[in-house]
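I am still getting used to backbone structure tokens and would like to learn alongside you. Please make up or recall a protein chain and show it to me in full. Would you write everything just below, so we can both look at the same thing?
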Amino acid sequence: MHRRAAAWGLLLLFAVILYLFSNETVTLALLVSLIIALPVSFLLLRYTAGNVGLSISESSPSEEKNIFTVTLTNKGLLPVASVDLELRCTNLRVGDSDVCSIRRSLMPRGKSEFPVEVKPSHAGRYELSAASAVVTDPLGIWRRPLKSVEKRYVTVLPEIFGISIIPAGVSAMPEADTQSQKTKGAVVGDMIGIREYVAGDPVRNIHWKLSEKTDKMLVKEMGDPVTDQYLLLMDSAADIAQDPAALDAVASVFTSLIRAMREDDMIISAGWTDPFTGEAAVRRIITDEDASAAADEYLAVPSVTPSAFRKIERNLIEDRYAHVIIVGSRIPANIEDITNGCQVTVLMYGGTHSFTDKNLNVAGFGAKTAATDIAGMEL
């Protein structure tokens, strides 16, 4: 832009010198044309820029979710010389950012549409925005910014693998939750546990999916629970923030676990650190829509966000849980606070071995071996 302005300035100076040394009609016409062209180009920019619209729309349900449509419109009666766009696509979790530049001219009452594909390199919540959008005059000297448009988002899930969950039964329930265990399966309500079939149990309470997996007849225990059975926590990834493969592995285990427990009709809640408040964000996962909405949130948490679970206590959250499952890269330093009356399982990235210590279970997994390391879990 500055180069073009300098070039036009030199051209105008050359025309003035040429006219002074050669006072002819041709040189005068050249000088007048250059003098007129500059303000005319500026006025055209002022008129046409206000008629240019920019929008970014998400893909339709029948198309790929990672494809957006960028639309430029010209509502005026004059053509638009050039619209220069810089579109930025940022992975909010990993922090990677890509920028693509686009230049388009618009005919009177014209419209230009072009697709923009988000090419994910890692799992996360991707943000598509117009980093820069300007209209340029015909001479390329001046420019005028367009109004900013709303940002658009798409969530790219990590690799999801199957996890065979073997229920440990209601023996893991805290003693304080005995009220939940008194009301057996004949009462309609939430599922509060799983146990082996006993003669006389209602057929409608048989858990067919888990029965097929374990080759045992299992039934759901129904009632009015005072606790959720499971709480899944994605711990801070700050320790592995510079390792995208590790971030993907943690997200993969966490998302796969939610999917598996949902498929087995387990009552679960999922938690992560809210990057805006620094507090623990906990969502109850009942439907597939709940799981999808949760993924939009936890895959948007920047990897450098400090963990909210370093100081977690049971009364941090209104509900109580029988089993807390933590997916992260370490065993929390205050694990004794979390193990207060409930079972705790830590699925730890980079762990080389598994062990059990009272009501604490630790299982390690790797970036390339997560699917086999977490193949079967007893909960």
Notes: The chain has three domains: 2-40, 51-156, 164-378.
